[in-house]
């Protein structure tokens, strides 16, 4: 009976905490996932060190670094998590970063502002991605990394943020031309697709997300789509994508890969049959193979 009462008290305190801390626009279950589910991931694979790379509207944005005991390659990898520019957590990529560090590779997972959590828009997330990358360059000596060998990558919407650094000119019409390579997991590389008519067979949850994300782009889904900025001499890329992805259909990735290669760019696309969105994080069968190919790709860039 005592244990049951303690459980009820803890449950009441947790629910009360979640209600008190919930951002205005964030659904309760989304906040639960952010604080409890994603929050727990921090303790499974804690970073070796974290730095605040920017403070915006009282929001501290951090880069979480995973450092190898012996650095085997000079390249490092900066990753951006997914979540439709609206939710999600840098913690979701901690396992990938930890496993890369075990292979001798410096990896960082970046926070950035999110629509539901911080009432921001896609342009704000893109601005944060630039700041995170610039911070790594400016602090390369402290991090013991080479500023011209930083790779960028991301999952889902984080893929768009990573690609934008190398492909989409910023407000000053500048791009980062010293990015070593790009790494993509189920990436949102074609956001122009948001302007098309919503498919009739899409479920209600995905329809609401589609409409909300379209709002976050503020009419600039064409301007912020990496697929519209394909040119030659882009960094070599590797893409992992599930053929059954209902969030980002595989045909969009096939088209992106084809156009990149037509411009003379190096792109490796790994397609997984019968796998959906975010398969690379949860699928026990696919994950080891994804990591094997990713580590091989990173080490190959050293040559």
Could you please describe the fold and organization of this structure?
The protein is of the alpha/beta class. It has 2 domains: 1-44, no CATH class; 47-300, Alpha/Beta hydrolase fold, catalytic domain (Rossmann fold), CATH 3.40.50. The protein is built from 11 helices and 8 strands. The protein has helices spanning 2-21, 28-44, 94-102, 115-118, 122-138, 140-143, 157-167, 204-216, 250-262, 279-282, 286-300, and strands at 49-56, 59-66, 76-80, 106-110, 150-155, 182-185, 237-242, 267-272. Strands 1-2-4-3-5-6-7-8 form an 8-stranded mixed beta sheet, sandwiched between helices. β7, α9 and β8 form a beta-alpha-beta unit. α5 (122-138) packs across α7.
Question: Main attributes?
Answer:
42% helix, 2 domains, alpha/beta, 303 residues, 8-stranded mixed sheet, Rossmann fold
CATH architecture of the largest domain: 3-Layer(aba) Sandwich
Largest sheet: 8 strands, mixed
Overall mean pLDDT? 86
Helical content class:
40-55%
Q: What spatial order of strands do you see in the largest sheet? A: 1-2-4-3-5-6-7-8
| CA distance, first residue to last residue | 65 Å
CATH superfamily of the largest domain: Alpha/Beta hydrolase fold, catalytic domain
Spans with pLDDT under 50 lasting ≥5 residues? none
Instruction: Describe the oligomeric state of these chains in a short phrase.
Output: single chain
Indicate the overall shape: globular
H and E string: HHEEEHEHHHEHEHEHEHH
Task: Set out the fold topology.
Layout (H helix, E strand, L loop, with lengths): L1 H20 L6 H17 L4 E8 L2 E8 L9 E5 L13 H9 L3 E5 L4 H4 L3 H17 L1 H4 L6 E6 L1 H11 L14 E4 L18 H13 L20 E6 L7 H13 L4 E6 L6 H4 L3 H15 L3
Parallel strand pairs: 3-4, 3-5, 5-6, 6-7, 7-8
Antiparallel strand pairs: 1-2, 2-4
């Amino acid at each position: 009976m005592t244990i049951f009462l303690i459980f009820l008290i803890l449950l009441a305190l947790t629910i009360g905490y979640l209600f008190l801390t919930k951002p205005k626009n964030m659904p309760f279950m989304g906040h639960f996932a952010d604080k409890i589910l994603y929050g727990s991931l921090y303790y499974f694979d804690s970073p070796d060190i974290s730095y605040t790379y920017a403070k915006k509207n009282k929001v501290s944005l951090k880069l979480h670094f995973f450092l190898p005991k012996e650095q085997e390659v000079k390249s490092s990898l900066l990753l951006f998590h997914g979540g439709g520019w609206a939710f999600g957590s840098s913690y979701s990529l901690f396992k990938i970063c930890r496993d890369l560090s075990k292979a001798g590779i410096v990896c960082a997972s970046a926070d950035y502002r999110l629509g539901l959590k911080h009432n921001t828009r896609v342009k704000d997330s893109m601005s944060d991605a630039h700041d995170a990358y610039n911070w790594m360059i400016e602090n390369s000596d402290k991090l013991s990394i080479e500023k011209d060998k930083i790779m960028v990558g991301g999952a889902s919407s984080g893929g768009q943020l990573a690609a934008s650094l190398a492909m989409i000119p910023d407000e000053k019409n500048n791009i980062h031309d010293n990015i070593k390579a790009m790494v993509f997991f189920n990436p949102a590389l074609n956001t122009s697709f948001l302007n098309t008519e919503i498919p009739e067979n899409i479920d209600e949850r995905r329809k609401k997300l589609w409409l909300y994300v379209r709002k976050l782009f503020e009419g600039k889904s064409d301007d912020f789509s990496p697929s519209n900025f394909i040119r030659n001499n882009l960094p070599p890329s590797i893409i992992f994508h599930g053929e059954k992805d209902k969030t980002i259909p595989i045909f969009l990735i096939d088209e992106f890969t084809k156009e990149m290669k037509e411009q003379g760019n190096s792109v490796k696309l790994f397609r997984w049959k019968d796998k959906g969105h975010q398969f690379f994080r949860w699928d026990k069968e696919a994950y080891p193979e994804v990591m094997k190919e990713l580590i091989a790709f990173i080490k190959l860039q050293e040559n």
